[in-house]
Amino acid sequence: MLWEAFLAGLIIGWLRNGKIKYLSRIPLPGWPLILIAVLIQLIIWIDFSISTYFLAPAYPILHTFSFAILVIFFFLQGKNAGFLIVGLGILLNLLVITANHGKMPVDSTHMPAEVAEELAAGEKSPFHKIITEETWLAFLGDVISLPYKNNQLLSIGDIVIAAGIIIVIQQGMQGKKRKKKWR
Q: Domain map of the chain by residue range?
């Protein structure tokens, strides 16, 4: 979904006569925070994928912390509406992840039975869990199915993030418009 949002932002920016080169001029105060958050999630994924599970007891804390870092980064971007919208989407995801002990709840009715079984057994992802009666804020979990992508579920937060990305990209492609000075 995020790639589609990025592409939609590029198309809208292009239709508005924007230029891709202007994207490199978007100021990103605190940009190392993104790298830290991505690194944390990458470390979790590598540890899980190679089945060492050395960090398994810390997965929930690390996962939650990586989202908190992202929320801080996006709210550091000031008055940029697109970045604030992305930050709001990440905050929604952080809420549901925090409420569910560091894991994003997923609706298993939209996935093949074998995937749901692996996820329920903790063998599919260190970041997700199946929605049960004990799940908090389930409506904020991955419960929205895309008709054109089988087995991909989105949360409300993901949709808000995608909307923010579209705004950031297409506005960023406009560059800073200079006002003409009247003499």
A: 31-50+57-172
